[in-house]
Specification:
The chain has 168 residues and is of the alpha+beta class. It contains 2 helices and 9 strands. It has 2 domains: 29 residues; 136 residues, Immunoglobulin-like (Sandwich). It is globular and about 65 Å long. It starts with a helix and ends with a strand. About 4% of the residues have low confidence.
Length: 168
């Protein structure tokens, strides 16, 4: 039989173990950043997550982009190769604060893809154009933006402003 003394000792150890697990789980969660946190500390590293939808407008021949959702969290991306684009078609993301550019990133154009695939004769590459796509981007920032300006550069065309999106 278990004595009352041993029962309470094992119960205390179990509670202590649960308390440590709860502390570890709580420390691993991410923090949302509010504008109050940023105003108090200007050097906070943050990651901006954007989910967007882009489609080709058949009547005008231009592309359009909309923001489906955004999330800003405290954190740091391990590597940021923000302007190493090896494509003739790309998107340019400008993050603005009070109408001044605080950061700029270039990403591969989601509608114009260059793919490689296996055929009977070996590897083949091909450029394809997609009509519509939902895609995700993440960016490293040190200041909280109030607007994103998205433009596109396509092969043999002028840079075209697609959208200005306010960030709350």
């Amino acid at each position: 039989m278990i004595s009352a003394r041993n029962y309470f000792r094992s119960y205390s150890i179990l509670n202590f173990g649960m308390l440590i697990c709860l502390f570890i789980l709580n420390s691993c969660s991410y923090k949302n950043i509010s504008s109050d946190n940023i105003k108090s500390n200007q050097d906070v590293e943050m990651i901006v997550f954007l989910v967007m939808k882009m489609h080709k407008n058949e009547s005008t021949g231009n592309n359009s982009i909309i923001l489906l959702s955004s999330q800003i969290t405290e954190g740091k991306i391990k590597t940021t190769n923000k302007n190493e684009i090896y494509s003739e078609n790309y998107l340019n993301f400008e993050f603005l604060k009070d109408k001044k550019r605080i950061e700029q990133f270039k990403t591969e154009h989601p509608l114009y893809r260059h793919i490689e695939f296996q055929t009977d004769t070996g590897l083949t590459s091909k450029s394809i154009v997609i009509d519509s796509i939902e895609f995700f981007e993440r960016f490293q920032l040190s200041q909280l933006p109030d607007q994103i300006r998205i433009s596109e550069k396509r092969k043999d065309k002028e840079t075209l402003l697609l959208n200005k999106i306010p960030i709350q």
